[in-house]
Amino acid sequence: MNQRLFVGGRWAEPDGGHYEVTDPATEERVGWAPEASRDQVLAACAAAREAFGPWSRTAPGERAAVLARAADVIRGHLVPYAELARAETGATTATARAMQVGVGAARFRRYARVEPAEWAIEPQINEAGPMGRAGVMGALAVRQPVGVVACVTSYNNPWANPAGKIAPALAMGNTVVVKPAPQDPLSVYRMAEALEAAGVPRGVVNVVSGRSVEVGETVVASPDVDMVSFTGSTAVGQRIAEVCGRSMKRQLMELGGKGAALVLDDADIGSAVAGIGTTFSFYSGQICTAPTRVLAQRGVYERLVDGLTAYARRLKVGDPRDPETVVGPLISATHRDRVESYVELGRKEGAVVTAGGERPPLERGFYVPPTLLADCTNDMRVAREEIFGPVVVVIPFDDEEEGVTLANDSDYGLIDYVWSGDIARAFRLARRLRAGGVGINTVGRNMEAPFGGFKRSGVGRDVGSYALHAYSEVQSIVWPG
Question: Which residues form the Aldehyde dehydrogenase domain (predicted)?
Fold first, then answer.
């Protein structure tokens, strides 16, 4: 079936025709995605602008009800939606169901509740002066919607990532233009169908896709767009920020990561291996929060390398439809080649490959095996640059001070990790890490905790109530008491 664009509440044939979406596991066609023209992108932005006024004035409870119905529609189509997500992304069936479609539905459900959008400010006593007579000034802070939000999403999770932008944006009264990643846009169109079935008014949600860079550039630069929410590489984020800066558009940026995992000499090595090992299996390492840069204190360095090596070698690589598969393919042949080039670069830089490093003997698909690079140093490119695949580098350190210094010696600062048997020690070190989040003895997340990065890992915070702040402006109203 040839997918159509979703613009102004209507399904439109794309001016630029269609392009093929490929299953990275089988290299077969999943479907045909639409290629929007510049005029169609601008029409989507204009539709969102027109719909903004009425939608922003809709009662919060009514907006929440739409999101709740959308969550129900998504849950009701869990199996076919997950099958499409698996085919587009190469995620395992379990991951597609639980972490892609399941999380997507949960995020719509999360924002289908009304939270206070205003709060009182402590009254202020003003003395008589040039501004008027003496008196008490009351004040109220009110969250107002930003306007039209461009949601530019990543390929690694075509459900959770767009839902994490669309749901809070709509809850706050914004309208959206979604530009999904070109590799897996079909799932986002299913999300639009769910919102349409839930009764979202025309123009409130628009989806335009394309392989051409012009599609994303046009969305970002449109004068109808007030804010850009982007998830992707730091390089692309920097270019978007430049465009936003010229017209003072608001921005929320979740960019790259090179998560440092400090494993101290009193750590539970089994726990550390299991946590770090998720880099190999979770989206095949295509995730910005992964603990890809392991800093191991020398007292546990050999045991940790041995443990990670054995762990990586045990993981089954193959067809994501097979229930026993743990590691699926990367998103494309181009990205596979990029990841493999980093492994070769690591060898040349002096790293020792203790697991993986060779393309698995599978007839089809874009596979890279779980790969461990030991005996690395923090100045190697494999330790400094985001690889975005199932590749982990291990760097030894002597004492806490050196460990913290190495962890902070990075352009990135999204999520770091600390493994230690001494919780007080772990918390003390966590506060010294220049990262937006720190996991202590876990790679799990609290989905109400603020999410975002320091340094080149991004700008702003979202998730939970923080997303409602991210997709709103704060207005102050004052009056004489």
Answer: 11-477
Each residue of 244-294: pLDDT tens digit? 999 999 999 999 999 999 999 999 999 999 999 999 998 999 999 999 999
Catalytic residue among 35, 254, 340, 386: 254
Q: Where are the domains of the chain?
A: 5-255+457-480, 260-447
Q: Cβ of 151: how many Cβ atoms within 10 Å?
A: 29
Domain 260-447, CATH 3.40.309.10 — does that match?
yes
Among the listed residues 45, 244, 288, 376, the single catalytic one is 288
> Tokens 């009056």 belong to which residue?
479
89-113, pLDDT tens digit by residue?
Answer: 999 999 999 999 999 999 999 999 9
**Are 5-255+457-480 and 260-447 the same fold in CATH?**
no
Active site residue 45: no
Nearest 5 degrees, angle CA 18-CA 21-CA 26? Answer: 150
* pLDDT the model gives residue 16: 97
- Per the structure block, which two tokens stand in for 180? 């999904």
Phi, psi of 143, deg, nearest 5? -85, 125
Which top CATH class is 5-255+457-480?
A: alpha beta
